[in-house]
Amino acid sequence: MKGSQVSARHDHLRRLEAESIDIIREVASEFKKPVMLYSIGKDSSVMLHLARKAFYPAPPPFPLLHVDTTWKFREMISFRDRMAKEAGMELIVHTNPDGKRDNVNPFDHGSSFYTHIMKTEALKQALNEHGFDAAFGGARRDEEKSRAKERVFSFRTSTHGWDPKNQRPELWSTYNTRVKQGESIRVFPLSNWTELDIWQYILSENIPIVPLYYAAERPVVERDGQWIMVDDERFKLNEGEEPQQRLVRFRTLGCYPLTSAFESDAADLESIVGEMLIARTSERAGRLIDHDDNASMEKKKREGYF
Amino acid sequence: MTQAAQTRQDTISEYLEAQSDKSLLRFLTCGSVDDGKSTLIGRLLYDSKLLFEDQLATLERDSKKRSSAGGDIDFSLLVDGLEAEREQGITIDVAYRFFTTDRRKFIVADTPGHEQYTRNMATGASSADLAVILIDARKGVLQQTRRHSFIASLLGVQHVVLAVNKIDLVDYSEERFNEILEEYQSFSSGFDFATFQAIPMSAKLGDNVTIRSDKMPWYAGPTLIDHLETVDVETDRQAGAFRMPVQWVNRPNLDFRGFAGTIAGGVIRPGDEVAVAKSGRTSRVERIVTMDGDLTEASAGDAVTLTLADEIDISRGDVLADPTDRPEVTDQFSAHLIWMGEDSMLAGRPYLLKVGRKTVTATITEITHKVDVNTFQHLAAKTLELNEIAFCSFSLSEPVAFDPYEINHQTGSFILVDRYSNQTVGAGMIWGALRRASNIHWQALDVNKQSRANLKLQKPAVLWFTGLSGSGKSTVANLIEKRLLNLGRHTMLLDGDNVRHGLNRDLGFNDADRVENIRRVGEVAKLFSEAGLITLVSFISPFRSERQLARDLLEDGEFVEIFVDTPIEECRKRDPKGLYAKADRGEIKNFTGIDAPYEAPTNAEIVLKAGRYSPEELAEQVFNYLESKGYLSGAYESQSSSDWVI
Question: Is-contact B635 B453, C-beta < 8 A?
Answer without folding.
Answer: yes
